[in-house]
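Structure tokens please, single chain.
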Amino acid sequence: MTQRKLSVLGPDTPWATRADGASVRRLPVLAPVRDIDRATRPIYAVWEITLRCDLACKHCGSRAGKGRPDELDTREALGLVDQLADLGIREVSLIGGEVYLRDDWQQIAARVKARGMVCGVVTGGRGFDRARAQAAKDAGVDGVSVSVDGLEGMHDHIRGAHGSHRAAIEALGHLREVGIKRSANTQLNRWNLREIPAVLEELIPTGIAAWQVQFTVAMARAADNASMLLEPYQLLEAMPMIARLKARADEVGVQIWSGNNVGYFGPFERLLYENTQTGHHLSCGAGSSGIGIEANGDIKGCPSLPTADYVGGNIRDCSLLEIWEQTAALRFTRDRTTDELWGFCKTCYYAEDCMAGCSWTSHVLLGKRGNNPYCHHRTLELLRVGKRERIERAEAAPGHPFDYGRFDLVLEDWPDQARARAERVVNGDERWLADERAATVGK
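Here you go.
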């Protein structure tokens, strides 16, 4: 473990991590604690317990592989479990890296259960054999989500390891054998978009209860591999496809969970969010309903948010309660108004309800939150006036965990033929797909 030290950053400099993944810690707590900070409590935590990984995924936002040099030890990790329970967390998802590469992962999971919280695990599944499935069962793990990002060839390509697809499907089988509830998660991107319906059909026989889908976001390795990112206008194809898959999933008893960056007030909103309290997509819940934890004890409002901009504090410096209530990085959704919106989102009819949707998606793409081009309503409104948006990489990501580059957003006229094809898709005419399997909408 590396020696911990305080940052020499100036008083207005946000939190950051060094390129080696070690924390650079400074805690500018805010006072006084307000009523809203006392009243707001998270119910869900996502905890990266190690950055060690046995895959090399081309879309990995944390650039997982090697462990962080100052990851929490067992005593610190178990103490953090207690603080999560005391804060009011109801469910903890343990992620990596790869959870099972940490020797004490069973102890952490068992402590989560002992403190009365639901415990889930997210895995790539490469080494999730029968013994590890039984270990998860013995520790009290309630459910495991296995990542499947395409059919065999595509999945292995994206995940950077031959045989990783076979191992993921086998992991679902091992979990079924020991009686753990199973789900799957899939990232949709330009590389695998046309395989997604077949992925669902492949997953159905595994007996999954749920399937989470979300769009690949321009963070870290995904920013490096920009060709895998959907163009914003491709939501015109992706969203109807997800809606069709929702109907198919309903037929076989699989619940589809739309990720936080899927949707936004298009015609399928009620269908995709019918199981939510509001029946539609909510604005970013970072620092409101959710909390994210990095393996070195850094705390964010959401596990996906970039470290340099959104870490509020480290549990080695102060309590989780203090970080939750008294740091600006975790207060931002409690304080935000439409004044921070810009671009199309500033003028949108749904601005007050949506608040530009997923902060992660917009910040790592454009360098700040408040304007999110990956919005179905937005793409439809632009199509109506003959416009579309696409992205161009302007700056590369520097190359450390949870980093990002910068993309320019280009507003342009639809080419006539491409616009006609897009309008046919929007109107439900997809016969052209039979002859254009290798194409994308608007190519």
